[in-house]
Amino acid sequence: MTSIAPMKSVVIIGAGFGGVGMAIRLKQAGIDDVVVLERASGPGGVWQANRYPGAACDVESHLYSFSFATNFDWAGALGTREEILAYFNHCIDHFGIADRIRYNQDVLTAAYDEASGIWSVTLACGEVITARAVVSACGLFNTPSIPEFQGAESFAGAAFHSAEWREGFDPRGRRIAVIGTGCSAAQFVPAIVDDAQTITVFQRTPAFINPRGPRPFTPLQRWAYRTFPALRKVDRYRIYSDLEKKFALQLNPEAQAKRLEASRAFVAREIQDPEKRAKLLPTTQAGCKRNVNSSLFVKVLNRDDVHVVTEPIRRIHPQGVETADGRIHEVDAIIYGTGFTASDYLSTVDFRGVNGQSLHEAWRDGAEAYLGISVSGFPNLFLIYGPNTNSPGSIVFMIECQIQYIVQAIGMMLRESIRRFEVQAAVQAIYNAGLQQTLRSTSWASGCTSYFMNKAGRIVTQFPGKASRYAALTRRLKTQDYIRKS
Fold this sequence. Notes:
The structure is a single chain. This protein is an alpha/beta fold. The chain folds into two domains: 286 residues, FAD/NAD(P)-binding domain, CATH 3.50.50; 177 residues, FAD/NAD(P)-binding domain (3-Layer(bba) Sandwich), CATH 3.50.50.60. Helix content is 30%, strand content 19%. It has 13 helices and 20 strands. Strands 1, 2, 3, 4, 5, 6, 17 and 18 form an eight-stranded mixed sheet that branches. It has a five-stranded parallel sheet with strand order 7-16-8-9-12. A three-stranded antiparallel sheet has the order 13-14-15, with no helix packed on it. Helix 4 packs across helix 9. The model has no long low-confidence stretch (mean pLDDT 92).
């Protein structure tokens, strides 16, 4: 039976960094009639979902956190999953937004009514929540990507994606196949290798590995950061500045060549076996795919009980994985470290805009939005971490830029009783044409396959500029770019 709740000013979908930050900033702006709908049992988004051993962030914590909530006692430069979830709870409690978040609420559809200017959000339980505005904070990494291998359903052992880690899975004594060599595999493989009998890593493309690892703070450092908050901000600015400089890699062939040479030299130093070394030396242009920042992963790949297979997978048998050379690699478990369908934006919710238009249909040739925030034909809908807003730096910084822009828009809508607030189609088209032109000159477009692209080869996730450039674009709400009807 369908029930309709009293209308809200704002419905936020998702309780990751985008949803939690949005709820906090709306409260600070005096907008209280807000509900956050989260399908998981707790906050954290991708950090709530990814429960694999060794899960941690590869962006330093003093920047991978809100600028308005730096008062957290991080144990080291890179936050673990457990710490990041604790940070979420810290922010929710500190800013008093716990009563605005509803967990275990799976959103199925969100539909805009042109006559009233109201969105109706339907939950899996049958409840319908109406709102003046909807903010989608579903995130980029919410749907695991699992290749369709022939015979996969016949495998006799445990098989799962790293983002859907099997509860109670025990790696002890097992022969484990790991498919993929991305950032997740670089974390969970070192965490289980000592328990496993063997690990066989199936690699499609050599990962671009940089030397890096967890760096715990000393007791003195933790005391200093707790005692002198300004030090946290100084460190935050240092990290931000370093990442801004690194963006030059995307547009500088000379810098890309030096980075490739450095990565190849690092792998060559760490891997003793010549045959294995040849398989692991990166060949793609620097920056083409997301880097793997892990010294530990390379050390693990150097072990005799860790095998690297580069032959393509032909099919999966009950007892193991068959490669194109006809060999069957017998294993007891398969773990897919194959990433997410990041280019399939908002695939978990059916958004319907003006005249019932489907957002999925509007994006059939590739997702696009103005500033990654607003989509023509979908009034009063705002996106956080939308198309072309991913950054080589801290996504939390980019998210904060989007949040402050959206707060301006929603504040204007409510103050001026604006029924329809919609970006002009021409503005959106011109903005995205410029983005795509710039993206063609970056290393992301140099020819490798990555989650940055959709199936047609269009780069739909990345912002082709420094974070400071995006901050400048989103600092002030450009009302002239929008249709506003009361």
